[in-house]
Amino acid sequence: MYKPLKQPVYVTQPIFPDLTKLGERLKDIWASKQLSNQGPVVRTLESELSDFLGAKYLSVFTNGTLALQLACKALNLTGEVITTPFTFAATIHVLDWCNLKPVFCDIDEATMNINPDHIERLITPSTSAIMPVHVFGNPCDVEKIQSIADKHGIKVIYDAAHAFGVKVNGTPIANFGDITMFSFHATKVYHTIEGGGLSFNNAELMQRANLLRNFGLMSDGDVYVSGTNAKLNEIQAAVGLLVLEEVELEIQRRKAVTNLYRGCLKNVSGITLNQDMEGVEHNYPYLVIRVNKEQFGMSRDDLYQKLVDNNVFPRKYFYPLCSNFKCYEAIESASKKRLPIANRVADSVLALPLYGQLEPSIVERICDIIKG
Ligand code: T4K
User: Fold this and answer.
1) Which of 57, 80, 216, 263 could form a disulfide with 206 if both were Cys (CB 3.0 to 4.6 A apart)?
2) Residue 174 gets which letter from DSSP?
3) Using a 6 Å cutoff on CB, does residue 161 contact ligand 1?
C-alpha cells in the first residue's frame, strides 16, 4: 500500500549553483561596474554556450519568448506560419504578437511533434515559415521539414525550448533550420533563471537579431529598425555560467531517474512512457506518461488528482491544446476535426516529477501511488 509523501514533490527543481562560487562571480561584476548591455559576462556566456550547443552563431536574450519573437522579426516573416498546437502557449503567442497567423498542423502520435506528412497541404501563397517544436526535447523530423521548406522557399524556425544539448546522429540540434530558439527558464534542464538563446547558421541574421534586442540602436546612434529591449544582464549570465558547469551531470542524473521510472512503470497496463529515439542524444527534460483510461482504469485527470492528493504535483503539459485556447479556437485550422491526434494526446499526457536531485526512493513511491 502506498503512503502520501511528507514533503511536496514538484514537476521540476532548478539547478542551484554553489553560493560561494556565485559570490566570487558577483564580486567581479561589482568591480567591473557593468550590470547590463552586453557586458563581459554576457559575452563570455554567449561564447561558452555557443561551444556547448555546437552553434555556428549564438545570442542570448531576456527569455525564450522574446527570443522567438525576434527570430520572426529578423527573418521578416509575414502572413501564415505552420506550427503545432501541442506546445506551450508561448510558441503561438509569439506568432500572434508578430501579427502572424498560426496555422495548426496535426502531430505524430509517437513523437508528439508536428507531423511533416501533413505540412505541405497547409502551405498557401501566404505561408512564410514553419515553426516546429522539438517537444519534450525529442527532435522533429528535421530532414523532411527542411526539404519541404526548400521546395516551397519558406523559412524554418525551431522552438527548441526543451532541447538544450540534444544531438541527432551527432549533429547538434542548434544546427537545423534558419534559427533555433532555446529557453533558459528556471524550469529547464539548463537555465539563467530567466533567459533564452537563438542559434543561427548565418552571421547576418545574428546581427539583425542582436540589433533588434537593443532597440535597433546602431553604433552611430541612428536607428533604422524598430527594436525592443531583450537583453540578458550580467548577474543572470553569471548564474548561467555556473549552471553550465553542472548541466552535463544534471542530464546524466535525469537519465538515471528516467530509467528508474521506465523500470517501475514498465508493466503497468494503460501507462506508456516516452522512449529514447534511435540516433538521438537526449537531455531528459520531462518525464511524460500517457494514460489510456480504458486500459489503466482511471482517467489522466483522476490520476493527476490522486497524485496531488498524495503530495505529488505533476503537470498536464500540454493541456489544453493551444488550438483550443479561447483566443485561438476560431482559427479555421484550430478545428478539433482537423487535429485528432493532437487532441487525443493532450487529453492523455501527464508530466511526472523529474530532476537530477530527485531521490530514487521518491520515484519508487510516486510509481507506487500510480500503481496502487
Ligand atoms: N516554447 C516552449 C515549447 C516552452 O515550453 C516555453 C516555456 C517557451 C517556448 C517559452 O520560453 P520562456 O519564455 O519561458 O523562456 C513553465 C515555464 O515558465 C516555461 O518556461 C515553460 N516553457 C513551461 C513548459 O513551463 P509553468 O507555469 O508550468 O511553471 P511553474 O511556475 O508552474 O513551475 C513548474 C514547477 O516547477 C513548480 O510547480 C515548482 C517548480 N519550480 C519552478 C520554478 C520557476 C521550482 O521549483 N523553482 C522555480 O524557480 O511554466
Assistant:
1) 57
2) G
3) yes
